Amino acid sequence: MQNTDKISTLIELNEELENYFRNTIIPQLFVDSHLVLRKFTPPAMRQFSLKPTDVGRHIEDIKDNFRFPTILENIQHVIDSGEVLEKEIQTTDHRWYQMNILPYIVQKNKKTDGVIITFVEITMRIRDLKEQEKLIAEHEILLDTISHDIKTPLTSLGLTIEMLKQIPEKGMARFPFLLEKIENSLVKIQHIINDLTDSRQQEHRYKAVEELLDFEHILEDVRLTLATQLKESHAIITAEINHSEILFIRRKLRSVVYNLVNNAIKYRSEDRTPEILVRTYRENDDMVITVSDNGMGIPQSEFKNIFQKYQRVSPSGEGSGIGLYLVNEIIKASGGKISVSSDLGKGSEFKVYLKIAAS
Known about the structure:
alpha+beta, Beta-Lactamase, five-stranded antiparallel sheet, Heat Shock Protein 90, 43% helix, 3 domains
């Protein structure tokens, strides 16, 4: 009777497992310690063109289905080490996945008897992040253009009106009326500009709101946004996060980190693999963020110019020359500061100081 109960329990558990396989929306693979495919979920069949007859085949024989060249090495690493592997991968059809490989551990002997692999497609997330970064940059440029390029001639127009007011009105009956119309138009334009440039009065999706941020999450967003550039350049990003929390505007902090890391990739040396180190630590009331690279370096004579609008680190480099300008404007507006040190031909380091708490 007792054996019958055990068999019945096993059958129920197996049915529950099969029901899970049929209904899960996540592509999953079950591979044993001999690298043989033992089971996969229906979404894996659709995403990777697997067939029921692939069950029992060695991964080597069907690795092309996954369009990811190092999947064999990754599986073997998890089997040998017993460690969980998490990484973003790009397949040859240019789709991106968050791949997690978990060791399947037999509780009885505590040995790894295979792996469970899950794939979550993040292609749209990466595209959205890139599009968002472009929109943020365009938005910052728009605000800067309005506040700097338009306010100057408006100020000059205001002074001109004040001078016109002092001219005698002999024979100019309509002059005061025309002058009043000009002045009213000027006031309206100034109000519009103030509404656009004062983030506290904005009621659209770019409204700037400070929040408590985790720097590691910001860096992860940046890394995903630059996934294609990282893959093409083979750049390696290393992080040393000694202080993580800061009260800041999310899109602005992301723009700062994005532009500094993007430049480190863009202005890499052709003689070596790009290596980028992102560090954070606390210094008094500031979070210090440093982005170091082993790229081409910057001549000391150019240190001041690189933070000017439309100035590029290298004349041969790509881009519009607004990245470091925007970084500098964001940091200055928050009461922080940025500095650069560089050894020409060996690499550069940008150091950012930001107040940890709201000012």
